[in-house]
């Protein structure tokens, strides 16, 4: 990417930012899974013997699911955004090629 394309908005920098947003989504998914896991364990301690095993079992089942689905959805969303911007860049390239091939007298 040269500076002229950057300064004239022919090329977007957003695809590079989307990768950073993906990793932020991964981090949030992992933190949410940990919060569910520790919340279930803490809830088991508060509930005592009555519902403690259910809270731990629920947390153990739900937290990996939240992490995996969160990472998967972050990846799908990032890929959709990147595809959208790549389509835009490709259309810009096609437009420039067609303008170069057009006869000047027409």
Overall description:
The protein has one domain. Helices cover 84% and strands 0% of the residues. Helix 2 runs antiparallel to helix 3. The protein has three helices and no strands. 5% of the residues are buried. It has 106 residues and is an all-alpha fold.
Comma- or semicolon-separated keywords:
106 residues; mainly alpha
Task: Describe the structure in brief.
Helices cover 84% and strands 0% of the residues.
What is the terminal separation in angstroms?
32 Å
User: Could you say how many structural domains there are in total?
Assistant: 1
**Unreliable segments (pLDDT under 50, ≥5 consecutive)?**
none
Structural class: mainly alpha
Largest sheet: none
Mean pLDDT: 86
Give the overall form.
rod-shaped
Count of individual beta strands:
0
Radius of gyration: 24 Å
| Relative strand content | under 5%
Helix content: over 70%
Count of DSSP H/I helices = 3
What is the N-to-C succession of helices and strands?
A: HHH
